[in-house]
Amino acid sequence: MARTARGARILITGAAGGMGWMYAERAVDEGAASVVLWDRDAPTLARAADELGSRSRGRTDVRSYAVDVSELGAIAKTAHKVRRDVGNPDILVNNAGIVRGNRFFWETDAGDDVRPTMLVNALAPMYVAREFLPAMIASGRPARVVNIGSAAGTLANPRMAVYAASKAALNGWSDSLRLELRQAGHAHVTVTTVTPSYVSTGMFHGARGPLLAPVLEPEVVVDRVWRAMLDGRPLVELPASVRLSRALRALLPTRVFDRVVGDGFGVYRSMEAFRGRD
What residues are labeled active site? Predict the structure, then answer.
């Protein structure tokens, strides 16, 4: 794929704000042929689409579709509309996500916490990708899938058990999908898995960055992810200490890791003051 998104058709979930909006902004600025925005917040989504449309000055076809990706049936219906209106995307960014934290697992509510977290973070990206992958494969053109996972999916953390589980599922599926595409001979479709630590978008408001893992600025994350996606790189770990933590987790006995990294670096206390979005 080219070093920019010029001429590409791009679909981004969770695109009404935060990093989803920033990916869309980047796509418009690079001259994408079309940018399709998915989000459940219809009023904010409409404003985002209007602003991006004005920004593109007619160069990019900006479309918005209000859809709650936790409703798996709605994904198929909305994907059908996208294919009818715009065509199949060349680039899919599975960005939508939710976090419920600062409670122990036995204090969480199965209906309000567990189910929606697993639906949005783990199942929805699979369902969205399944809608568009067949055409990506059949086209023979360079295509990209970006799945926004989390460092929480590689390193367990108290007070976010369900979120960590959902992102572990996403991380595992995403990398397996990458390998399946390669094994099946579809090298023109690449998958990039992103595992950042806390990002200052408001989603993790109140969370504290542990030692060696400061809270990340969203602009930095978006830039790194975007460049990796265009290059077809398989994994983006931010900051570098995420990779170090994985290595230490594999090398150290569990109790030693808990004391040195979990407690000593402050990882296991990082969610104690979490409040999330207002």
Answer: 163
